[in-house]
Amino acid sequence: MQPTADAASSAPSQKSLGHIRVLDLTRVLAGPWCAQNLADLGADVIKIERPGVGDDTRTWGPPYLKDAQGRDSSEAAYYLAANRGKRSVTVDIASAEGQAIVRALALQSDVVLENYKVGQLRKYGLDYESLKQIKPDLVYCSITGFGQDGPYAERPGYDFIVQGIGGFMSITGERDDLPGGGPQKAGVAICDLMTGMYASIAVLAALTHRDRTGEGQYIDMALLDVQVAMLANMGANFLASGTAPKRWGNAHPNIVPYQTFATADGHIIVAVGNDGQFRKFVEVGGRPELADDERFASNPMRVRHRDILVPLLAEMVREKSRQAWISELEAAGVPCGPINNLGEVFDDPQVKARGICVDLPHPVTGHVKLTASPMKLSVTPPQYDAAPPLLGQHTDEVLRDLLGYRQDQIAGLREQGIL
């Protein structure tokens, strides 16, 4: 029997990864997304940033977080999305002293994450082979655009480019023969995000192996590998048939109607999964004769005659409001839904009930609203202990508490521009 929400919320919370420390040398999105997942699950994540500059995404705005007076702060919303729960330490890793600090922190860590160009950290003695010599049980994860080997290994990797190279854009976008047809990227950096998710799983698998055997290992994550893997059934369709899938926009290649329609005042999604649902759909729309038409009586026939049927359905749907359609179709058992903007998303009663928005204290702005982790664990749920850190917010704390630096040593390093 599953615990109730009240019981789960009143039980003492534990941290799944409270025994794990992660040294995060990543920036932008794929690596920070992985590190944020681990931080949400309780890991102590130390984010290493360049002094005075920090993660590139700190300046990827507007929008920026507003301070108490309503002015833009230095924290871009993009940065806030992927850096919750971490500690920020500023270190110049191009300096010998900075390299020594990072090596010392690696010795105190279970995991190192990095997304530098292939081979770039070797010259600093911060690559896996170098750190493995001083910490054999280290789990070390490298994230690049194209992996550590192969003809593209030296290329810089950007999500948008990889969406194109990896085939995603060939199946995303409106049909070429319709207005606005052509390749389209996703509305978010989906390849970066999925790489961060796959990297999180790989790190947890490597930690489990380490705990069983004492052996660390190297993880080579590539955006292109992830993009091809996440083609899922589309990739399998090609491998099975030898025929490249094409773009269908908001329609489905094998099911009709399974797409968006314009209503009198907005848009809805209708996902008819069988012939009975199709009949109910057209009955709600006042066109029951369409279900009796032999051209539309079965899904294979509807697919064959989609160019005739879909305009008839589009005309039918435009006769009612979005809410009227949703209410009537839900009552009839026909799968449907609205296409919400983000204001409507965060105001949705189901989203609110699931606690997908969290409000955390922030040292400059007082508080910051963030999207919560979707992981729901009954005993060790994600915990939101800290907002995304200010640049270098924890430098003194980490060097003092973990590495034993005196305050005058820290001040000296800061004067030299190393911190």
From TrEMBL:
UniProt keyword Cell division present: no
GO MF annotations, alphabetized: transferase activity
Keywords: Transferase
Superkingdom of source: Bacteria
Keyword Transferase assigned: yes
InterPro entries (alphabetical): CoA-transferase_III_domain (IPR050483), CoA-Trfase_fam_III (IPR003673), CoA-Trfase_III_dom3_sf (IPR044855), CoA-Trfase_III_dom_1_sf (IPR023606)
Gene3D superfamilies given in the database record: Crotonobetainyl-coa:carnitine coa-transferase, domain 1, formyl-coa transferase, domain 3
Listed Pfam families: CoA_transf_3 (PF02515)
SUPFAM superfamilies: CoA-transferase family III (CaiB/BaiF) (SSF89796)
Name the UniProt record assigns to this protein: CaiB/BaiF CoA transferase family protein
Species, as recorded: Undibacterium arcticum
